[in-house]
Amino acid sequence: MNFDVRDESIEIMNVKGRMKNKKLSVEKLPDVILTEQPIELQFVSFSRDGFGHRSSFGHHWQLEFDFHVDTASSSILSKPHRHDYWEIIIADTGTLEMQIESSLYHLNRGDICILNRATRHAEHFQSGQTVIYVVLSMEYIASWPKDTNIAFGKPISQLFENGMNLPYYQNKDYIIAGPAKEKAYSSVLEIIQAMKEEFLNNLPGNRYLMKGLVYRLINTVTVSKAYTVDYCDMRAEDKFGLADSAKRIIDKNKRRTTLFELERALQYSGPYINRLFKEKYHCSIAEYNQSTCLQYMANQLLTTRKTVEEICHKIGYTNRTNLYRLFREKYGCSPREFRKNR
């Protein structure tokens, strides 16, 4: 989670910490986010009414601050971005919605995502949510001992090898892991807490101990079988992944969804998404969206007491005459007749 952004909707408050030449600014997220520390541990929490708190711990500086997001939904949708580092994202409380390249994920408590450098992604943070981040720079991974006893094993070793050796923009792989055992996430939290204490105490030898803790964290998630691991490489992505993601967005919205909205969410051109959608589902996005809106309207007519006008507003149709015509073509009667006769 990066708050080095200039965005008038985010107000930074109560800044404190141990910093060396660290300037806190607020600006729009760049396409590629850089790190100033070899390793960093971050805790980001969101309460109601748009208030939140972030704590960051690292070898070079430590920082914490409160913030407020001036949005109607009290949520943050980060701009799709890449990193120059590997990022371990841990969903602690709540469900974290993530867009990774052209795929959508929902991370529940204990679920973990490990992103390679250059893997484009965006997070949608909701109130009542806590997320933990571990940032690992190229400098940090390159400094690991070349010892047979320090071997990550696949698939995480593949993730690091690709990040170190492939051209930057070819790094589009990531890991999604979920707890396979009851106490798996408790073990992860114990390691995270130990890492935090090492940063806070800053005693001699803590950098060596920190590497051991990072190794233990990665081993727990990807090697020990405490977690189920799904390795994804978007270089070999099924071309219809975008079509699937567009469909999921439309199904979730349950309203008129424009190509422009899909472009912003998926970071691909609308015509390209629409062409893939037609190839897979044999109809255009507009046709599918219209059908889902009409189905939702019919369901609302049967299961709620909402007025036809309220339902029209909910699904985003301002031209009720046109909507009534489409509804009659699909169901053979007007919305009011449909409710009365069923």
Topology of this structure?
Blueprint lengths: L9 E9 L13 E2 L5 E8 L4 E8 L3 E8 L6 E2 L4 E2 L1 E9 L2 E5 L2 E5 L4 E4 L5 E5 L3 E9 H5 L13 H10 L7 E7 L4 H18 L4 H17 L4 E7 L7 H13 L5 H8 L3 H12 L3 H19 L4 H8 L4 H12 L3 H7 L1
Parallel strand pairs: 2-7
Antiparallel strand pairs: 1-5, 3-4, 3-13, 4-5, 6-12, 8-11, 8-13, 9-10, 9-12, 11-14, 14-15
Helix pairs in contact: 3-4, 5-7, 5-8, 6-7, 8-9, 8-11
Largest sheet descriptor = 9 strands, antiparallel
Report mean pLDDT, rounded to a whole number.
85
Per the CATH scheme, the topology name of the largest domain is Jelly Rolls
Q: Give the helix level as a range of percent.
A: 25-40%
CATH superfamily of the largest domain: Regulatory protein AraC
Apparent shape: elongated
- First-to-last CA distance: 50 Å
Tell how many strands the DSSP assignment holds: 15
CATH class of the largest domain: Mainly Beta
The helix count comes to: 11
H/E element order? EEEEEEEEEEEEEHHEHHEHHHHHHH
- The spatial strand order of the largest sheet comes to 1-5-4-3-13-8-11-14-15
Radius of gyration: 23 Å
Coarse structural class = alpha+beta
CATH-defined architecture of the largest domain: Sandwich
> What's the structural domain tally?
2
The unreliable regions are 1-8, 20-30
Could you explain how this protein is built, in words?
The protein is of the alpha+beta class. The chain has 2 domains: 10-236, Jelly Rolls (Sandwich); 241-341, Arc Repressor Mutant, subunit A (Orthogonal Bundle), CATH 1.10.10. The chain contains 11 helices and 15 strands. It has helices at 138-142, 156-165, 184-201, 206-222, 241-253, 259-266, 270-281, 285-303, 308-315, 320-331, 335-341; strands at residues 10-18, 32-33, 39-46, 51-58, 62-69, 76-77, 82-83, 85-93, 96-100, 103-107, 112-115, 121-125, 129-137, 173-179, 227-233. The strands form 3 sheets. Strands 1-5-4-3-13-8-11-14-15 form a 9-stranded antiparallel sheet. A 4-stranded antiparallel sheet has the order 6-12-9-10. α5 (241-253) crosses α7. The N and C termini lie far apart (50 Å).
